[in-house]
Amino acid sequence: MTINNSISSKxxxxxxxxxxxxSTEEAEFFLLPPGYYEFETIGFNYSERNNSYTGGTxxxxxxxxxxxxxxxxxxxxxxxxxxxxxxxSYFNAIDFPIGMEPSSRNTVGTRAGCRLAxxxxxxxxxxxxxxxxxxxxx
Length: 138
What we know:
This protein is mainly beta. It is built from 2 helices and 6 strands, in the order ββββααββ.
């Protein structure tokens, strides 16, 4: 079973049109305790985000990760500025070749490890990636 733990954003729009099935139930939400987890990249996109400090924009990497857990896998969104420490730790963890341009074609399906934390946002607490770590599951 996979549980979707992501918070939707304007960038998190599926390619296929949404078809409502009549359900009024919310998707099940499962918060993992902080710690080390294995993951698989299931989505990779770029977006442009507004920088509230400078008034400009910056390039953002939008990852969608399936986090493996003994009680059921969860899916989280992991947005991060391109060139940030977190982005660099992601590319290092998945052994991404230096000099190659990242895209969904060469990142989706890659596996590694990550350290998850919890972060309170607006009305609930979510899991966030603190750091990506190489693993032996590749």
